[in-house]
Amino acid sequence: MANSKFGKLWIGIAILIILSPVGLILPELLKAGGAWGEWGADEIEKIAGYIPHGLKKLSELWKAPIPDYAFSGWDKGVKSYIGYIFSGIIGAALVIGVSMLIGKIFAGKNGNS
Q: Are 93 and 100 a contacting pair, CB within 8 Å?
């Protein structure tokens, strides 16, 4: 029974990863700019006319390992969609790995190994 539930989970995650480029394709087709909520400081400045002080102050604090979900030189066309899928795979793997690690740590503390 547990295998069946996990099988459905993995299928669901795979479907979401494969569908992730829809966030790139639809805004491009509808001429809507970037994916909603994915704006950087420069895009917010275009929309609002200014960059909020807190955003400007903290915007250089973190550099994403895969900026804009694309590898260097993979920011146009089909390659951008493939990069988006790879970003989804990497992100899902990291979240699953960290979740499993935390689960093992807490299971060990409760005596359930």
A: no
Distance separating alpha carbons of residues 89 and 68, to the nearest angstrom: 15
Rg (Cα) of the chain, in Å, rounded? 19
φ and ψ at 30, to 5 degrees? -90, 5
Q: What does the pLDDT look like over 19-58, one tens digit per residue?
A: 877 877 777 787 777 666 677 788 888 888 999 988 888 8
Task: Report the 10 Å Cβ neighbour count for 3.
Answer: 7
Specify the residue for token string 């960290």.
98
Q: Within 13 A of 109's CA, how many CA atoms are on the CB side?
A: 6
Taking the model in full, what pTM does it have?
0.58
* Spatial separation of the C-alpha atoms in residues 74 and 72, rounded to whole Å: 6
